[in-house]
Amino acid sequence: MTRPRRSVLYVPASNARAVEKARKIACDAVILDLEDAVAPDSKPSAREAALAAVRDGGFGHREVIIRVNALDTEWGPADLSAVSQSTADAVLVPKVRTGRDILEYDSALSAAPASMQLWAMIETALAVFRLEEIAGAARSSRLTCFVMGTNDLAKELRMQLDVRRAPLTAMLGLTVAAARAHGLSVLDGVYNAFDDETGFEAQCRQGLEYGFDGKTLIHPRQIEICNSVFAPDAATVAWAERVKAAFGNPENAQKGVLSLDGVMVERLHLADAERVLAMDAAIRATDT
Prior knowledge:
Layout: E1 7-12, H1 16-22, E2 29-33, H2 43-56, E3 63-67, H3 76-83, E4 90-93, H4 99-108, E5 117-122, H5 125-129, H6 131-136, E6 143-148, H7 150-157, H8 169-181, E7 185-188, H9 197-210, E8 214-217, H10 223-230, H11 234-248, E9 257-260, E10 263-266, H12 267-287
Parallel strand pairs: 1-2, 1-8, 2-3, 3-4, 4-5, 5-6, 6-7, 7-8
Antiparallel strand pairs: 9-10
Helix pairs in contact: 9-10, 11-12
């Protein structure tokens, strides 16, 4: 199913006002966070608040994901047990290191509804060396999406990052490649300076260039720019329509390659054009 994931907003599950606001803003998905955004002594109450928010609903078209604490923490097992009984669209798990971690989380969700997805944070040094193995666990688990944890990864590797994130570029590209090799969605990490619209837009465009489906966000004011960057623009949609129409012409039914406006277009470009048009239609339906 083509589903927009341009803008995915982290919301502390313990912040009732922020959760209520998330029901109305224009993001594509909401992550109710039980991990980094919640103080240790507030984690049990945040868990209950997240479950209540999912139970109460009201998020409309937005996917609702709960980010749990890691299984090896004192809160993780209880988080997984509770969330598996909910109707959340997905569970986001942190600090993944190997494919075996994915299978352990999947086992912890054995009682969850079949529709519940497993999303995984890519934010450890070891995970960088196990990306294909981790993505490959999708063959025997609920895994459907990678989420870059760029803050944790940079901290572990002692990197100094600016807007362009040069030290991370190889890891960003490899994460996208591993995700695509196994049919996963993949989301870019957060941009911390939420008042810096210029820098944020530049980083969104960088993420788009790398092939990310969208970006995780820490503030609602980042949503509009993010949605705009990660949606196919008018020129891209128009070109996709021309490619589809050209291959749809009966005289081209058996052709594998065409010349269109001086550009050689293959059937692989038709598949990409159909993807663009499907996403454009999904976004239009969402935005209306």
